[in-house]
What we know:
This protein folds into three domains: about 100 residues, Orthogonal Bundle (Arc Repressor Mutant, subunit A); about 150 residues, Beta-Lactamase (2-Layer Sandwich); about 100 residues, Heat-inducible transcription repressor hrca homolog, domain 3 (Enolase-like, domain 1), CATH 3.30.390. Helix content is about 45%, strand content about 20%. Strands 9-5-12-11-10 form a five-stranded antiparallel sheet, with helices on both faces. Strand 2 and strand 3 form a beta hairpin. Helix 3 packs across helix 4. The longest helix is centred in the N-terminal third of the chain and has 17 residues.
Amino acid sequence: MKPARNTTEMDRASHSEKRIYGLSERDRSILRLVVQSFIDTAGPVGSRFLSTNYQLGLSPASIRNTLSDLESRGFLDHPYTSAGRVPTERGYRAYVDELMEQIRLSEEEQQVLRSQLTESVSDAEQLVRESSRLLSQFANLLGVAISPRLSTGVLERLEVVPLSSSRAMFVISVRGGLIRTIILHVESELSRTALDRVVALLNERLSGLTLDEIRRTCRERVQDLQSDGTGVVQLLMDSSSMLFSEPPADRKVEVGGTDRMLAQPEFQQPEELRDLIKLVDDEAAVIGLLDTSDDEAIGSARVRIGSENAKPDAEAPARYSVVTAPYQRHNMRGTIGVIGPTRMDYARVISLVEGMAALLSWSPDDEFPLG
């Protein structure tokens, strides 16, 4: 199923106004066609191919000169003698930033996504799992979904359950059905009556705040209750950083489509296969690669190409491009995205990722996205 291209005058004008790379109209036409052809064929693109397959109104010599100029400026590379050109990271970046036409998903694709995801909308874990599977299926690359960050969720209720004379379980319920439980050591035996009273007071003070707000301001909000006689308030203040934060291990990561990724020509050598499998097996690395910041707009895709994914404390997955978008459920932010080779159909993947983020952010009170 192919997406429909949106080639309105407004879209073309928005591209033409972005001239941060100093490309002439000829440069733009040739670079766009080289990138698109390489995405389609995975083979170097030469002047003969361009002059034969496209009506450019240019002689083969003019096309060769333009290719040579684009190579000298770092947009293209010449992989081996007598071959055509392939895009560099800079070439892909210019394509995404200036040259790529926006597309939208076909009606058929929209319908499949809607019907598949609405069946899972009430089950957060199934929704994350299904979204990664669908992304991989539609993009033929790695589809990745990261569960919402619990720390951005709103506390619905705090409960404290005595387990023994020295242990109690703190149950943190967040809007949207997510629950976190932590067992802590208590200094004194807990009276049920006293415990119910102090927990009710804590819920009055803390319910309706995000877990991150509680972590940062817990002490000032409840310290006047610390003579409660149970020690629970003091324990809450002392342990707030642990209780209301979210270790990376608590985030759920779903990766789908490893077999589809392995079918790409970039991953045919043993070393490339090992690196890909190592990445897929490392959930912390996947979260680091995909996670978005709080200032990124919900549903808006971000594209990082090759070495742009480098982290100071980790290996740079230079052969990958990553397209991500944050989504929001019950005030909690998660991330949906696609990992693939730098030779990626960026326009299609961006459309898929943004569409999926919109669906994941949907609630029954909202107008249904994707038409």
